[in-house]
Design goal:
The complex is a heterodimer. By secondary structure, chain A is of the alpha+beta class. Chain A contains six helices and eight strands. Chain A has a four-stranded antiparallel sheet with strand order 2-1-3-8. Helix content of chain A is about 25%, strand content about 25%. Chain A is extended, with a radius of gyration of 23 Å. By secondary structure, chain B is mainly alpha-helical. Chain B has one domain: Ferritin (Up-down Bundle). Chain B is built from twelve helices and four strands. In chain B, helix 2 runs antiparallel to helix 3, helix 5 runs antiparallel to helix 6 and helix 5 packs parallel to helix 7. The chains are: A alpha+beta, B mainly alpha. Chains A and B meet through strand 2, helix 5 and helix 6 of A and helix 3, helix 4, helix 5, helix 6 and helix 9 of B. Bound molecules: fe (ii) ion (2 copies). The site of one fe (ii) ion has 7 residues of chain B, from helix 5 and helix 6.
């Protein structure tokens, strides 16, 4: 029987050999039809299909979304993170392969998808993407070869939309908590507490 | 569970770097500009940020251990589903924060090894036992509540990758806290036995929650790197006061009594008396309270808490038993499990 099943917590003198870190993926989710994909987080996985499966579990459950994309971290090229909005410049041209463009509107914010450009390499892709997508707020541009972006299919997503998952959302408890507080606090006191909850504390 | 990153008083690292660059860096932070990975930053900033993110990541995965033990014993299907989701969230928080740490220059394997050899630490509050379901309710209400308050201030920090991760995590913490509040209200509105269970668990967790924010900062905390560089944005004592102002009246309204307790080496309460310091100062709006036992805090941080050895041993078991999976994932090579 394995040590796990026996809960055997005795150990040898040395640790097993170090293990390599897994490939690292960046995940974006789309909340509703025609909305951009927005940065959701990261997963580590050996390949794209496991990365997406993990992403569905990790990022597709607590926020209903209708699509997830993933790319390997090393496939992203980020331009400068500017203090001020980027100047679009005038890089033109349409030769080369397709690059998917993500924009960042504020430092510490989340990248979101903006469209695609064609370019022969990452540097030119960033220049062309800046010309095409640097709106009044964009402070950084990320480009990823479109061929290296992996996407969930509709059939992979559908299973998450079929049952009530309010139990894993704060709002799923709001009604019960209010009703249960009514045994201990009057409506006005509770209302004040609830408002402070959001404004000052959480 | 919830990992507040409050590594105890980060050292005052002597700053040795280009003074002009440092001045520009500090001016940016003072102006409220967030730091992104490509920006120049002092080595000591990188080192402290790594230490903070790694400590936070460790806390998330160790924090999931006591709660994970209760999944099979949850009192209903709904509570079981919620607890599974919560534990999954916490491990996910660990995964995201290890990623932030990896980008600051340390491999995940090194972090997992340092955790089990005691080179790095995790949050003190996870070294205490959870003998009843009441503890699970109190952890989610009191500790996740404290974690949200702390992490909200951390989301106000200056390091972009940590800030975006914190914002993401806080969304999930809100669920942990609300389901905790729901569980405590359920117990306190329930049978006599449920109320006693909740009170006993509250006695165990109230002082731990007070310690959660860490000991008082040094008088010049604002001038030391952690606050000057906006790695943390509020003093520990100030956070603790805001916490008490919110949770003490809520607990008392539900019928819980705030006690000052003596505990044994196993972390169980041996004697208690009502905390007579609990009172509202109408002028300041602040509640006074008895400080937790700070000697106990330091004892537990040094590794001598009720559950330190067990938590670290479970991490080690998992590291050793999971090595073959990590090897398969990391190298793509066929690997086999240890003898079944
Ligand atoms: Fe949590
Ligand atoms: Fe957490």
């Amino acid at each position: 029987m394995s040590k796990v099943r026996e809960q055997d917590l005795t150990f040898g003198d040395s640790l097993p050999d170090p293990t390599p870190d897994a490939r690292h993926w960046v995940i974006y989710t789309m909340k509703r039809e025609a909305a951009p994909y927005k940065w959701a987080g990261y997963v580590d996985a050996p390949d794209a299909s496991l990365a997406l499966q993990f992403a569905r579990e990790h990022y597709g459950l607590d926020e209903a979304c209708i699509g997830i994309i993933a790319h390997e971290h090393k496939d992203a090229s980020d331009g400068v993170y500017s203090l001020d909005p980027l100047k679009p410049g005038n890089a033109a041209g349409d030769d080369g392969d397709s690059w998917t463009v993500f924009t960042l509107e504020k430092r510490g914010g989340n990248h979101q998808s903006a469209g695609t450009v064609n370019a022969p390499d990452a540097k030119i892709a960033i220049e062309r993407a800046t010309a095409a997508f640097a709106g009044p707020k964009v402070r950084s541009i990320r480009v990823v070869p479109t061929a290296r972006i992996h996407e969930t299919t509709e059939s992979e997503l559908i299973i998450w939309r079929t049952h009530d998952m309010n139990y894993k959302l704060a709002k799923g408890y709001a009604k019960d908590v209010r009703a249960k507080w009514s045994r201990f606090r009057d409506e006005k006191t509770y209302e004040q507490y609830r408002k402070d909850d959001i404004a000052k504390h959480f | 569970m919830s990992g507040a990153a409050n590594p105890v008083s980060p050292p005052d690292i002597t700053i040795t770097c280009d003074p002009d660059k440092l001045a520009e860096f500090e001016q940016r932070i003072a102006d409220g500009v967030l730091i992104e990975p490509g920006d120049w930053m002092p080595d000591s900033y990188r080192a402290l940020m790594l230490r903070m993110a790694e400590h936070h990541a460790n806390s998330e995965i160790v924090g999931a251990l006591p709660e994970g033990e209760w999944i099979t014993r949850a009192p209903s299907m709904l509570r079981k589903l919620a607890l599974i989701a919560k534990v999954q969230d916490e491990v996910g928080h660990g995964q995201m924060l290890y990623r932030v740490s990896q980008e600051l220059g340390k491999s995940r394997d090194d972090m997992l090894r340092d955790l089990i050899t005691g080179k790095t630490k995790y949050h003190n509050c996870f070294n205490y036992p959870c003998p009843t379901w009441g503890d699970i309710a109190m952890i989610q209400w009191l500790i996740d509540g404290a974690a949200i308050m702390n992490q909200k201030t951390l989301a106000d920090g200056a390091y972009g990758p940590y800030v975006r991760t914190m914002n993401r995590i806080n969304m999930e913490e809100a669920f942990h806290f609300k389901s905790g509040e729901d569980m405590v209200l359920t117990l306190m509105g329930g049978t006599k036995g449920q109320q006693i269970m909740a009170q006993d668990a509250f006695d165990r967790w109230w002082p731990i929650a007070l310690m959660f924010f860490g000991p008082a900062d040094k008088p010049n905390a604002e001038e030391l790197p952690a606050m000057k560089w906006r790695m943390k944005t509020e003093r520990n004592d100030s956070l603790r006061q805001r916490y008490v102002n919110r949770f003490a009246p809520a607990a008392m309204d539900m019928g819980l009594v705030i006690h000052v307790c003596e505990k044994d080496a196993a972390g169980l309460v041996t004697s208690k008396r009502p905390d007579e310091a609990i009172a509202l100062d109408e002028d300041t709006g602040n509640w006074s309270f008895t400080q937790p036992d700070w000697d106990e805090f330091w004892r537990v941080i040094r590794g001598n808490g009720p559950c330190n050895a067990h938590r670290v041993a479970l991490r080690r078991l998992s590291y050793e038993q999971g090595a073959w999976v990590r090897r398969a994932i990391g190298t793509g090579a066929v690997a086999t499990p240890p003898a079944a």
